Amino acid sequence: xxxxxxxxxxxxxxxxxxxxxxxxxxxxxxxxxxxxxxxxxxxxxxxxxxxxxxxxxxxxxxxxxxxxxxxxxxxxxxxxxxxxxxxxxxxxxxxxxxxxxxxxxxxxxxxxxxxxxxxxxxxxxxxxxxxxxxxxxxxxxxxxxxxxxxxxxxxxxxxxxxxxxxxxxxxxxxxxxxxxxxxxxxxxxxxx
Length: 192
What we know:
76% helix; globular
């Protein structure tokens, strides 16, 4: 198993755990527009760590699928958009932490759009390539957009959906025993 795939799997599981912790923190002390408590900074730090783990998990997906004919430019574009979106979200969260309040909302929306498009592309590629289980592709397509809808019902529901998504992807990446190895080609028996 390629070490990038293995680390992607571990990072996916770590992201899931961090998103669950962030959902618990959100329930204990809901995040306000002004960050005036240790709980707010703890929540933001956990979310930033989760985003970093997601980036490593996306790199694991990319490592698993790279060089495959069904991955191609579409898969690479999905990877780049997803990583760029999460990187921008990290920067915005860090700036907000320094400012002590929610900042750069429009930039964060743009980053969310990049994550949405990138995740949908990656989901479609996973469905098309048939290397990871189909449900990983479906979760990539639906988890991020459903998060905002779910938050209207239950605050922090988005974090729980992201935990389901990245935990599933992490487990699926770790379950790939052979990683990028191609199936063995059988040799014809030699007459002797």
